[in-house]
């Protein structure tokens, strides 16, 4: 079984820059501008699965 983190590492996130993204078992299951709505959409699509929710930083963002 592949973890959500492994999926995150292997997925090209360029199309999601500045968006909230939810990964749950099979890949990206929801994305958008509102974290709560993205999470709720992911829960509806993947009931009972662990959901990894994160925001893809803008290209100019520096992460430490």
Give, in spatial order, the strands making up the sheet with the most strands.
Answer: 2-1-3
Helical region count? 2
The H-and-E topology, N to C, reads as: HEEHE
Mean pLDDT: 92
* End-to-end C-alpha gap: 30 Å
> Which stretches of 5+ consecutive residues score pLDDT under 50?
none
* Binned strand content: 15-25%
Query: Could you estimate the helical fraction of the residues in percent?
Result: 25-40%
Which word captures the global form?
A: globular
Domain DUF5678: 14-59
InterPro entries: DUF5678
Protein name: DUF5678 domain-containing protein
Pfam families: DUF5678 (PF18929)
Summarize the topology.
Blueprint: H1 4-10, E1 20-23, E2 28-32, H2 35-45, E3 52-55
Antiparallel strand pairs: 1-2, 1-3
Explain what the structure shows:
With 64 residues, this protein is an alpha+beta fold. The chain has one domain. Helices cover 28% and strands 20% of the residues. A hairpin with a 4-residue loop joins strand 1 and strand 2. The longest helix is centred in the middle third of the chain and has 11 residues. The N and C termini lie far apart (30 Å). The mean pLDDT is 92.
Overview features:
single chain, 64 residues, alpha+beta, three-stranded antiparallel beta sheet, 2 helices, 3 strands, globular
């Amino acid at each position: 079984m592949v973890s959500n983190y492994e999926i995150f590492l292997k997925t090209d996130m360029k199309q999601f820059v500045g968006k909230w993204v939810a990964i749950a078992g099979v890949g990206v299951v929801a994305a958008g501008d509102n974290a709560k709505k993205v999470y709720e959409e992911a829960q509806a699509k993947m009931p009972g699965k662990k959901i990894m929710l994160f925001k893809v930083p803008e290209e100019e963002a520096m992460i430490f």
